[in-house]
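Notebook, bench 3.
Goal today: get a predicted structure for Chromosomal replication initiator protein DnaA from Sphingobium lactosutens DS20 so we can plan the truncation constructs. The sequence was checked against the plasmid map this morning, with no discrepancies at the termini. Length recorded as 467 residues. Pasting the sequence as submitted so the record is complete.
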Amino acid sequence: MNVRAALVERQATDSENGAGLDSAWSAIRTGLRRDLGARLFDQWLKPARLGDYCPESQTLDLLVATDFSANFVSGQFGDRLRIAWRSAGVGVREVRVRRAPDAAGPRLLEIASLSEADSGVVAKMVVASNFQPRHRLDDFVVGDTNRLAWSAAQAMAGEAQPRFTPLFIHGGTGQGKTHLLHGIAAAFSAHSPTAPVLYMSAERFMMEFVNAMRANETMAFKARLRAARLLLIDDIQFIAGKGSTQEEFLHTINDLIDSGARIVVTADRAPQMLEAIDARILSRLAGGLVADIRAAGLDLRLAILQSKRALAGDKTVPDMVIDFLARSIRSNVRELEGAFNKLVAYGQLTGRAIDLDFAQQMLADAVRANARRITVDEIQKACAAHFKIDPAEMRSKRRARAVARPRQVAMYLAKKMTPRSLPEIGRIFGGRDHSTVIHAVRTIEALRETSPDMDADIRALQRQLEG
């Protein structure tokens, strides 16, 4: 056979193979749509088209729009596709799912390939993502109690791939965990506007997963979560004891970590303190970076209120009121900000000046709820530890300066921070007369005016006792 004849025969064979593959693919698609359901098929397999075929290795390429789609289709449907093609009898033994080389915009093509209903879901996830842009990382007031969490949030939201994932942030209610989640989402979306970002509470995760199981749409649920390049889950403690939900959550974070996605999870406790949570989940969460947010101390509470006043551009709240709020509302940052907002709103509605009397009147209930009963015993122990003396010296008769001065400080703080009367305080300090307490209070007040070191000691002890 001459070269021309061989070429004509090869072209005819390729043509027959192509027609056979097209016909087989049409039949396979029909079967897959019937077996998987219209929605799942339309979302992931309908957009796929035939690519190159190698007769030597009997390998066929299926082309999809994005790398993510290729990974998902290969992982979820690879075996099914392989069996279907081998059964078709057209010489295909292996199926390789790849991103089409002519795919210009990977995320846009993937969205365009979805059904109308699903593209709406994905578009909402990519563009809206239900995070609140008003919570920005730049607006988060940083102090010693939250600096690590804020720094980790900055790294997680940055353009460079973070060195850790997941990020696990834990702390009490209202201390700023949710603010950081929304701030991360906003900052990440600013430099990667087409990257899918998904924020939800653990309770919402559980509810959507249960609904997906009931509607036989778990594959679509899985696909939606695994499409995220940034997944943020709030209050993970709420999936405690939910076996199937935890299993799905574990698979989700494993797949996302393997794909290079970023994950941020919050809880009210450290991972090792979470009860009824799968040990594999706890191991995964603890394997990234764990950052805590502790209760805000007095200095941070003051800084938060000053920041809110500056952002609002409202100079009608005087420093005296700011100080009153910071010292009175100690439970959490959210309640502190709420008290500030209430004062400003009431002042605007009533036309009254926001002075100390007005603040005390409007916030009386909140102040009572936050009032922690600091005891004289606590003050004595704190002062003894601060000045490095034996706590028993607070009640002793010794008058050495190294003992007398810390005792006077403790009496001063007992007068300022407890409702105890002067005679009661004197009795607690070793049966002393009330005049001794008065002398101690006046002495420390005078020293605070002239000695920066004494003033710093008093402030440090107040912060410790209050927070």
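The domain at 376-466 is CATH 1.10.1750.10 (Chromosomal Replication Initiator Protein Dnaa; Chain: A;). The beta strands are 49-54, 59-64, 94-99, 167-171, 197-201, 230-234, 262-267, 289-293.
Flagging this for group meeting.
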